[in-house]
Write a structure and sequence with these properties.
- The structure is a single chain.
- The chain is mainly α.
- It is built from 5 helices and no strands.
- α2 packs parallel to α4, α3 runs antiparallel to α4 and α4 packs antiparallel against α5.
- The chain is elongated and about 60 Å long.
Amino acid sequence: MSIGHAPAGDGNRPLRPRPEATSPPHADSEWNYRVRHETPTQRLDRNWSHILQELRVVQTGMQILTGFLLTLPFQQRFSVLQAFEKDLYLITLAMSTAATIVLVSPVAMHRLLFRRHALPVLVEQGQRFAVTGLLLLGGALTGVLTLTFDVVVNRTTGLIAGGCAVLLAITVWCCYPLFLARQLRLGRPEKQPDQPQHPSTQH
C-alpha cells in the first residue's frame, strides 16, 4: 500500500499526515491525531507498551501469591485442615496458577508471533488476557482471605471476609471506573483496527 506525501506547511515544515479519508470517523482516532499526532501503528505500539506495563505490575504480586500458596502443603499445620479448607485451598491455588499463566500469555504470544506483523492481534488479545487474569486474581485473593479468616477465626467469619473481598474488587475494579466513564461521558472504547492503516494525503 503506497503512502502519499504530506503537503508542505508553514515554511519548510511538512504537515503530519491525517488518517485515511476512507476510514470511518472515530472520536478516539481524531483525538489521538489532534493531541498526539499518532499514526495508527504508533497508537498500536503505545497500547501494547501500556498493556505490558500493566501486566508487569500484576504479575509480580501474582507470582508471589502463587509461590506462597505452593509452600503451604509443606507446613506442619496444613495436615490438620478440614476437608472444606483443603478444598478451598486447592481451588485458590488453581485460580492463582491460572492467573499467572494467563497474565504471562501475552509475552508468549509476542515471542511466537514476532516479526509477523501481528501487532493488532497482540493488542486485542492482550486486552482480553489482562481482563481474564484480573478476574482470576480477584478469585485467588478472595480464596486466600476466606481461608485465612476461616483458619484463624471461624468459617462464618471467613465467608464474610471473602464476600467483602468480592464486593470490594467488583466496586473498585469495575463499578467505579464505569461510574467515572459515565460521569465524564467517555463513551465506549474504540475497537482496534484489524490492520494498521497507512496515512494518506487529502488534496
